[in-house]
């Protein structure tokens, strides 16, 4: 396999900031802290060089993809930074388990810091980054990945923590994967690096969401080059703006490895008689107004700064902030029956049927 | 390796009851339910045949020993019985990790059901049982084994639960082993089968406690054939009888995968003006009288029925029971500085120095 070919694109230092901005938007509040991930990505590119960004077609069918992501409460991620050794610990264990070395790193989730950090992990491992991920967004639970929806087995899951503990789980199904991996994560201080659904390229087609690293970069660039960032972002995403307002109520707690909460956004200007409520479990999951659902997971609901269109992550929400709420459609995979069963509103404990965003008036 | 040689002893159906009685005594309250373990051992011997009992010298230095034990709250073990597949799931994972099949099963702890259940596991796997264990008693935490005291690395730990999930942990040390394995165990419903310190025979000498299966059998037999079982048991163990009395206070709770509690035994007959208090964390750990320590972990403290000398496990303690409290010395390995640091009173949170039982008057 030759990475250095004319067609190969490299992720450079200049790409880190726009990638981080785009990943923050796709994270819909979650996916881990983008700022520390961007620092790590910048540091690793400086130290190890630029990272080839490849597509599935640049790899051989037998090449092993190593999907990597942090698991844990994003609020913990702020204080407990990943060490430098976890990717190598996981790579080594994957090689031991599969009998061959991984050929590329893939973000498990493109949303939040988990979309940005893989640049650092790939750089350290000397591997290219695959322009794809397992969510097209961020989700809080282990089984909520496209590979699960596509019916692939999650086993083995390999986890490493900052201390150097390595845990491999062969769960019987995706729900047990979540239970056990979450318990290991909490034991490690609510933060660990995880590889699940390690898979050959030949099985990845239709089971990963392609082009999402490129999409995140495009979102970040779109907001950069305009005097009207909110409109530019909405246009690039094909998003509805649900409300422009300010945060007037905010409840958050970190429990069982999750950041859970509720935020109320009271409209300003033309929206001044309105009030939106968002339900949060790491990510923004359901938007309601006067008890009526305006958008629901797996469709994406983003809170952004009204002036700059910068995404506000769950742990960055502050009383009084001027924000706009955007909503846009998820990848079609999430709208299949298995996709909705996995990550629809009922999967998060809400007594709601999923209605596609486009069908809500 | 030939198991069927003249010198080989086999564990038969007739051995199960005395083995269970002896393991209950060595369990000092813990080590898991002996009754369900004895049922499982009997059933497996009927189904798969008698189990060869071998010593280290019957095996080759390169032969792999598979130490097996249940992890979890004994109170949960009563209601959630092991499935039949866990030993095979662990054996298969061990073979995958080590590149060769285990040659013998060893009880991780001889105390309680964990001393008896390995007969069933060995029978199912078609492997001999090693006449040795990792404690010479029962202990509640993963790192509290002789192999840890001997300085061997705990890695890898392989766990399987009744659902079929298999988890392999490569912890950086014994304390992290306990934290992560305990979390996995709690996620699986506070009960799992575990192999840790999987090791070749050549490394086992001095790192396992030899002859403990035979000792448990001898204890069970000693109590069987006498009109004075309490005296016979005390003689066989070389134990002090701390008090003869009845249970007058009892507090237990199951929390974080442990059964914790305190029991007060008020003397009867010659002991009628006395009251002993035992501190329990799965096992009986500290015996005090009027604030004075009479015996402390790692020395062994057993509660037995005064008439029959049958051990009373923690979850079998009842208000009003007529019991006697015995104490006897632990294996010398536990009295080394590393042994006391691992399983002395301070390792369990008691602000006490260890004093050998023989030095307490």
From TrEMBL, chains A, B:
It comes from the Bacteria. Gene3D superfamilies: CV3147-like, CV3147-like domain. Residues 174-357 form the S-Me-THD-like C-terminal domain. Signal peptide: none annotated. Residues 15-169 form the S-Me-THD N-terminal domain. InterPro entries: S-Me-THD-like_C, S-Me-THD_C_sf, S-Me-THD_N, S-Me-THD_N_sf. This is DUF917 domain-containing protein. It comes from Sinosporangium album.
